[in-house]
């Protein structure tokens, strides 16, 4: 069976087949993931951050989503605070021109200069946030960042924009890292509480020791006074009999019992020597006082010039004369 003109049709022209589903452009998808925020799908803006799964975000968008929980998507539900993201230290590409060439990347590897466009695998360190190509990181044998010399471990290496399998690996690393951080925080708190308890114990012990020291010093001073008092009294007792014998007034009784001076007698003798106390006695007379002047004696009625007067005295007024 043929067609007009002697042509022979093929099978695909006669039989209708199912259309194949449209396939995504992998290059376009890769470039989109490396240049746009995973939260808002907008162009990445500095500062750029990453989560524990290796996805890239604009920090401003993440802060807005944390303040307004409705903006937070299910894919980013693991971000609960700013501790769950890390600032990236990116190296700018000097040959990048956004207006002319959109296929190139604005950032490159800090060690070997590969473009961070998705054609090569890139990793970041969670400890410091520096970004390298995986090829360059494998060449470095020491576990130190080649840019800032910060030490890191295998758990701190995060693959940026990895596949689904790599994302699951990053999730396990993130959980292990969070568990380690919680254990370190708990250890610090326990250490701090132990130091505080030891400090309180030492302070109480020091206060008790000072109290014991003060009590011991006071008791020692009391004992010293008690020891010194009998010695002085015995010395007085020894001196008194010797003085009595020297004066010839001692006897058998006085030798056996020493004479103790009376405190009241000593005090009364000292008071008797005071001129003010002498003037307060009844037998005191101004006229007989040798220290008083003649003018001062003439003011009183005991003076000779005042004995035969006919008028009243100015101090002791006597109406008998009026």
Give structural notes.
Belongs to the rtf2 family. Pfam families: Rtf2. It comes from Anopheles culicifacies. InterPro entries: Rtf2, Rtf2_RING-finger. One of its GO terms (cellular component) is nucleus. With 322 residues, the protein is mostly helical. Among the domains are: 26-176, 2-Layer Sandwich (Herpes Virus-1), CATH 3.30.40.10; 281-312, no CATH class. The protein is 43% helix and 7% strand. It has 9 helices and 8 strands. The strands form 3 sheets. Strands 2-1-3 form a 3-stranded antiparallel beta sheet. Strand 6 and strand 7 form a beta hairpin. It is rod-shaped, with a radius of gyration of 57 Å. The N and C termini lie far apart (187 Å). The model is unreliable at 229-255 (pLDDT under 50).
Throw out a few tags for this protein.
mainly alpha, rod-shaped, 3-stranded antiparallel β-sheet, Herpes Virus-1, 7% strand, 322 residues
Overall helicity: 40-55%
Query: What CATH architecture of one domain would you give?
Result: 2-Layer Sandwich
What name is given to the CATH topology of one domain?
Herpes Virus-1
For the termini, the CA-CA separation is 187 Å
What's the rounded overall pLDDT mean? 75
- Unreliably modeled segments: 229-255
**How many strand elements?**
8
Organism: Anopheles culicifacies
Pfam family, one: Rtf2
GO cellular component, one term: nucleus
Protein name: Replication termination factor 2
């Amino acid at each position: 069976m043929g067609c007009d003109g002697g042509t022979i049709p093929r099978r695909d022209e006669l039989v209708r087949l199912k259309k194949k589903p449209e396939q995504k452009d992998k290059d376009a998808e890769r470039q989109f993931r490396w240049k746009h925020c995973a939260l808002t799908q907008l162009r990445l803006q500095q500062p750029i951050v990453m989560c524990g799964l290796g996805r890239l975000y604009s920090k401003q968008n993440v802060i807005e989503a944390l303040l307004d929980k409705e903006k937070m998507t299910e894919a980013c539900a693991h971000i609960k605070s700013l501790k769950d993201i890390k600032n990236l230290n990116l190296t700018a590409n000097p040959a990048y021109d956004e207006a002319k060439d959109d296929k190139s990347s604005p950032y490159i590897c800090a060690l070997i200069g590969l473009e961070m466009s998705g054609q090569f695998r890139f990793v970041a360190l969670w400890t410091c946030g520096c970004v390298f190509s995986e090829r360059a990181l494998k060449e470095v044998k020491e576990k130190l960042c080649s840019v800032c010399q910060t030490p890191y471990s295998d758990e701190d290496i995060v693959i940026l924009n990895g596949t689904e399998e790599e994302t699951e690996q990053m999730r396990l690393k993130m959980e292990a890292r969070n568990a380690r951080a919680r254990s370190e925080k708990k250890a610090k708190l326990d250490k701090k509480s132990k130091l505080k308890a030891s400090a309180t114990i030492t302070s109480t012990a020091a206060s008790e020791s000072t109290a014991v020291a003060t009590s011991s010093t006071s008791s020692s001073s009391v004992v010293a006074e008690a020891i010194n008092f009998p010695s002085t009294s015995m010395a007085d007792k020894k001196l008194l009999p010797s003085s009595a014998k020297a004066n010839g007034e001692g006897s058998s009784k006085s030798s056996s019992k020493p004479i103790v001076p009376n405190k009241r007698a000593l005090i009364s003798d000292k008071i008797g020597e005071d001129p003010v106390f002498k003037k307060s006695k009844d037998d005191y007379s101004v006229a007989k006082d040798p220290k008083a002047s003649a003018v001062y004696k003439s003011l009183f009625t005991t003076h000779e010039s005042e004995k035969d007067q006919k008028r009243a005295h100015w101090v002791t007024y006597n109406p008998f004369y009026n």
